[in-house]
Specification:
76% of the residues lie in helices and 0% in strands. The chain is mainly α. The protein has two domains: 2-49; 65-162, no CATH class.
Amino acid sequence: MSTNLIVIIVAIVIILILLKYVTKTAVKIAAIVVVLVGLGLFIFLKAGHTADDINFSDAVTEYSISDLKQIYCESKANKSDSLKCICIIQPISEDLSSRFTQEELDDLEKHRLKFAKELIKSINNKKDIIKAKLKENNANELLKEFKEDLLNKNLKLKLKENN
């Protein structure tokens, strides 16, 4: 706790020095915000937290590979979803399975930000196969649609409908 107290005192001193020498109001406010954010981050990290403790629910995707399989592969009613399963989800799933053990895949299910990064890598790794399968099925537009789906909150509704 004494380290935190020293850091707080140093931050206050830095703020006072900035206020004395900086004359523009906007710059003063920005400087204070930067120091306070830095202080907050220092205390957060000093307390033993990591970046994984921060909620990144709106990051690239909040879905796991299981969710994507459920959305696109379990419902055969929608031809577009079936093609996304065959042409996109299956190659991505194969790539993930080739790069990770089952235990690591289970860990990715829990850490969605890590999964989002690996999903992007898998799409890039399998881009040629995905494009070839889409072309073979005359469905070139589905990759763009899939990427839009990941960012679209309506995908949550689709997931709920499949349950």
